From TrEMBL:
Designated name of the protein: Benzoyl-CoA 2,3-dioxygenase component B
Listed EC numbers: 1.14.13.208
PANTHER family the record matches: 1,2-PHENYLACETYL-COA EPOXIDASE, SUBUNIT C, PHENYLACETIC ACID DEGRADATION PROTEIN PAA
Any GO molecular function: oxidoreductase activity
InterPro entries found in the cross-reference section: Aromatic_CoA_ox/epox (IPR052703), Benzoyl_CoA_Oase_BoxB (IPR017635), Ferritin-like_SF (IPR009078), RNR-like (IPR012348)
Natural source organism: Variovorax ginsengisoli
Length: 475
């Protein structure tokens, strides 16, 4: 069951060939997917052989097989973690009942919406990152970008499989629409805000994969608890790939910091202009990028109070992060949670029904996880003897969604007036000058083992290969 059938046109471990109608429908979608990849996937990459990891089974030993392949021939397919026939729903009003193998009619619209919203983010990030290959700081980094891109493509496949198998004609139409929306398109944009932002340079890419792929981790973790068993099983497998995406972000920023700290020590300076003149990225710019990506990403969790969040939980569609490890009643009726609101110009906490605050619960879990990695970045600075530390901004900073949208906050959590915001904004968020400077560093460095001057080499290569391995063959 867990071995992937590669003799099929569509690699899968779901016995696809036994369901001819579904197989034909997915084989009909496949060429549209490849057209989408050719149109808005990684720019100029068609002829390259890339050292990619491909899943051949969902077992720990089998999901990572490495070899050089052309990306458009990547074995995108359908992989579900093994099922457990006795699995029970473990939260919400249906707690203790058997998990669903098909979609109950009354939850059809909500489940479709959840799957489409998740599915929409996957091709969106490929579109956002499509030009980055042209300015890769090394062949190693180029390969990591492409690995993430093909896996986001596979995540789209995972959601499209669910839509085709369980949602009939509506599902097939949604699967088509997933290829029609485009990140940043004025007329037909992607569903969520952060997925319509540009990823203009590699510092933005590392921040995106650190913060925004981590949003993916938390959303997928919540869906991995779902009473709808096929959704739980497919998201569990997606999580193994998401971990690598966050690794690329975390190690990428670490390497930028390593290089910046080395330049600061060489020149014995913390002057941003001198650091820039030496071809490294100053810490102020890194902090502003962090502020931007963090605040845009925490908006993805949605409004702090949401009746939909309560419905999704109580009906068993979406659990909490690590639901199974929590020791409460997993029903949450009558419990409360603290959210923030602005009262008389001040931020105050207020208690609201926990079921309605589950977006905020997930956001707070995300924040804890994010801060842990920022502390690891600070270790790089500490080891280099640099006294500056990176911090995540206050969670009310630069918010566009929920009760905190529309108020002006400093990163350290003070409500500020329009005048102070206007005066300080350029210290808090990346400026056109920051973007222009970072863009000026982005030149393509792709000789094996060579690295752009603004980033340190990684400690190790991929799959125990040397750092100067030929990760991409340009042909
Ligand atoms: Fe993904
Ligand atoms: Fe990802």
């Amino acid at each position: 069951m867990s071995t992937v059938n590669y003799s099929d046109k569509i690699p899968n471990n779901v016995n696809l060939s036994e369901d001819r109608t579904l197989q034909r429908a997915l084989e009909g979608w496949q060429p549209n997917f490849v057209n989408w990849w050719d149109d808005v996937g990684p720019d100029g990459s068609t002829g390259y052989d890339v050292y990619l990891r491909t899943a051949v089974s969902v077992d720990p030993q089998g999901w990572a097989q490495f070899g050089h392949v052309k990306m458009r021939d990547y074995r995108w397919g359908i992989f579900l973690n093994p099922g457990d026939a006795s699995r029970e729903i473990h939260f919400g009003d249906h707690k203790g009942e058997k998990a669903w193998q098909d979609v109950p009619g009354e939850h059809r619209a909500n489940l479709r919406r959840i799957i489409v919203t998740q599915g929409d983010t996957e091709p969106a990030s490929v579109e956002q990152q499509r030009h980055l290959g042209l300015t890769a700081p090394s062949m190693y980094d180029l390969r990591n970008l492409y690995q993430i891109n093909v896996e986001e493509g596979r995540h789209l496949w995972a959601m499209v499989y669910l839509l085709h198998k369980h949602f009939g004609r509506d599902g097939r139409e949604e699967a088509e629409a997933l290829l029609q929306r485009t990140s940043g398109d004025v007329d037909n944009p992607r569903i969520l805000g952060a997925f319509n932002e540009k990823t203009p340079d590699w510092l933005a890419f590392f921040m995106f994969t650190y913060f925004t792929d981590r949003d993916g981790k938390f959303q997928l973790s919540a869906l991995a608890e779902s009473a709808f068993d096929p959704l739980a099983r497919t998201t569990k497998f997606m999580l193994t790939e998401e971990a690598h995406h966050m690794f690329v972000g975390e190690s990428g920023v670490s390497r930028v910091l390593t290089r910046t700290a080395a330049v600061m020590n060489e020149l014995k300076t913390d002057d941003a202009q001198k650091v820039r003149a030496a071809g490294a990225i100053d810490l102020g710019t890194i902090q502003r990028y962090l502020n931007f990506h963090y605040s845009v990403t925490i908006d993805l969790f949605g409004a702090d109070q949401s009746s939909n969040a309560a419905i999704f939980y109580s009906s068993g569609l979406k659990g909490r992060y690590e639901e199974g490890k929590r020791t409460d009643d997993h029903v949450l009726k009558g419990q409360t949670y603290k959210v923030l609101e602005v009262k008389d110009g001040q931020l105050v906490e207020k208690d609201v029904p926990m079921l309605n605050a589950l977006n905020e619960v997930l956001r707070d879990d995300f924040i804890k996880d994010s801060v842990a990695g920022v502390n690891r970045w600070n270790k790089v600075l500490e080891k280099a003897g640099i006294p500056t530390r990176l911090t995540v901004p206050h969670k009310a900073f630069n918010r566009q969604i929920g009760a905190l949208a529309g108020i002006k906050m400093s990163p350290d959590g003070r409500v500020v007036g329009e005048a102070e915001w206007a005066a300080k904004k350029s210290e808090w968020l990346p400026t056109p000058d920051d973007f222009a400077f970072v863009a000026s560093l982005m030149g393509r460095v792709v000789d094996p083992g060579k690295f752009a001057g603004w980033i340190a080499p990684p400690v190790m290569g991929i799959n125990r290969q040397p750092v100067d391995f030929e990760y991409v063959r340009f042909g």
